[in-house]
Fold this sequence. Notes:
The complex is a heterodimer.
Chain A: E1 3-4, H1 13-20, H2 30-43, H3 48-60, H4 67-78, H5 85-91, H6 95-101, H7 115-130, H8 134-143, H9 145-151, H10 157-172, E2 173-177, H11 178-185, H12 189-200, E3 203-205, E4 208-210, E5 222-224, H13 234-242
Antiparallel strand pairs in A: 2-4, 3-4
Chain B: H1 13-17, H2 24-36, H3 55-67, H4 76-95, H5 109-134, H6 142-150, H7 157-171, H8 173-182, H9 191-194, H10 197-216, H11 220-226, H12 242-258, H13 262-279, H14 286-308, H15 315-334, H16 340-350, H17 371-386, H18 389-396, E1 401-403, H19 404-411, H20 415-429, E2 430-433, E3 441-446, E4 450-455, E5 458-466, H21 471-481
Antiparallel strand pairs in B: 1-5, 2-3, 4-5
Amino acid sequence: MGFAFDHAPERPANIDTILNGLDRYNPETTSIFQEYVAQQCETQTYDCYANLALLKLYQFNPHLTRDETTTNILVKSLTVFPSPDFNLGLSLLPPHLLAQTKATSATGPPASGTLAEAIQHLTKLHTLLVNSNFASFWQTLDSDDLYADLVADVQGFEELMRVRIAVVVSQCMQEVQRSVLDGWLNVKGEKFERFVKEVCGWRVEGETVRVPENKENSAQGTVVRETVKFEQFGRMVKRAYEQPA
Amino acid sequence: MSVRQAPTHQQGAPERTMEDDSDVEEEALANDYRQQVDYDGEDYGLDRQMSLGGGPQDLHAQLVAAAQPLEYQATLETKIASYDSYCNLFHFILNSEGPVDIEVPSHYWAWDVIDEFIYQFNSFCSYRQRMALQQSTTTVNEDEVNILKDNPNVWGCYSVLNVLYSLIQRSQISEQLAAKKRGEDGALYAGDYGSRTLYQMLGYFSIIGLLRVHCLLGDFSLALKTLDDIELNKKAMFARVMAANFTTYYYVGFSYMMMHRYADALRMFNHILIYVSRTKNFQKNAQYDSISKKNDQMLALVAICVSFSPTRLDDTIHTALREKYGEQLTRMQRGGPESLPLFEEMFRQACPRFISPTPPDFENPQVNIDPVEHQLSIFMEEVKNNMWSPIVRSYLKLYTTMDLTKLAGFLEVDADELRSRLLVNKQRSRQVRYSEGGLLEGDVVNSSDLDYAMQGDIIHVSEAKVGRKLVDWYLRNLARTY
């Protein structure tokens, strides 16, 4: 079963119509998309394709840009790392914003309270996540009130991140030390055990956590064989008819 | 059927006159456009009559001109005039009473005209952006800056998109292609306009044009979505025009690359590069020259993708790649911080000239960052996240089981850092890959020949061995012998 990038199971019909028609360029639909983003934040659903359409509307009509919605979209895309969604979002932002975040000593860091500053912070989180520096990710998240403000709108952000990290771990690990894992998940003690057992379905045995075997973490050697299709021989067969030997 | 009727509208560009069109969606677009741009309908003091003449010969001349590249040294006035004549031409084609019957100068005129239209749009936007940015550092031609400031809507993004979408809708090409896909006769869905070859082809190549424009604007997922109705195979109409074939695969491949689907990107580049290498003996003409530059660009993209996701390449491409970028490829595949400048150099060389959809801000020159730099910096973040993977992989290849702390010692990093790198590499080896359906669809598969799992601090490594591939060799030799 494949999945399509533009597919979102919970997308309402009216959003779907806009996305497939020319109304996706109509600045009047901005408010509809904005509400949809707010709804995604509340209900823990996610629709990247629709969110990119909103960023595109902002790209075409900079005066309509709402900073809060932009950052919410980016925060939402963090919850699905390591997918390219965060980067695809950045691609649609105005170039000067990103340039400001790469502040050199000459220009100084972006002014506080600006969108550039928010994006700089989110990019930092994103980098930590895609580099699998989960422990530093949680530390960074706690280090500055701005982070708390940025993720405040996204319901259950920490829980979503924990689940996402657990998925990454389950792809790679059969056994992992408890001390390592609780740093990555940023939960300790009883809460840790509850999360690992109930949400992930893993077993805690003393100081190790066992992850049940799955397709990704079994690491079995395989031999890839060539698949030969009859069509590949089509030309040859044809030629055999053309020039009877 | 004269374009003479156009002068009454000409100052407004087609968007304004499209309001009286019954098509609701077009009207919406036109409305947006009007809101967006507070157009005052003034003449810009330029001679705008030059592109318009009377009589059918002029129409013919105009059709020919529309498909011809502008001179390299074309002045700003010429560029603006060229925009106006495109507007008039498309207005004439789209908004005359009923479909127009014109004799086009060549068989693939439709491709040439769309191609040139987008090319001029692209270079105009880049040029305008550059002028705005350079204002702050160097002295630029004041007159030109003023002309650009006064005409924010010339080569506007909305108008270009409007033309492309209108051509697609008029020709009902999407409906026709969808019907063909279902195995029905496309002609049933063609309508008055779409049943004519001219409209059909303009509509068809406008889809390819949209792919290109979306990609230039940095909207890679929408770019791929645009091609939903077109099947990428040798029988597709675009494959009959070499330049169109080439352009399509370049932009599709590039969009895949920016969506981190390197295996799919490679598949696209592979396909077209092999095609070019097989047909280049028949194409010794001017067309081929323009292709050869793009060919090198695509090889650079192949080098980037192959460094990200090591795979076995086709022999012809591998040889070409070694010849052209051998040194760079080796260093990129080695990874680490030393490889970063090479990735940057290759990306710069091979990326399309990205543009920004809104006119630059002439009052604040420093904010007009080149969109190419913008996309480059996003891309480089991705490269940085990946740069340790080749090194980790090269060590893992040597072992079947390995202790984490020991490997950390080899790599001179601490255990935590190595754990992270192993997780990163594992995630990178899982890629979405196309199997069937629309271009945006795909399954997550393991794209690497190396796989591993960690049991506490023990790393178990396994390798996928690739059996010998014989069919290709067999067929090639068979073809040679008879």
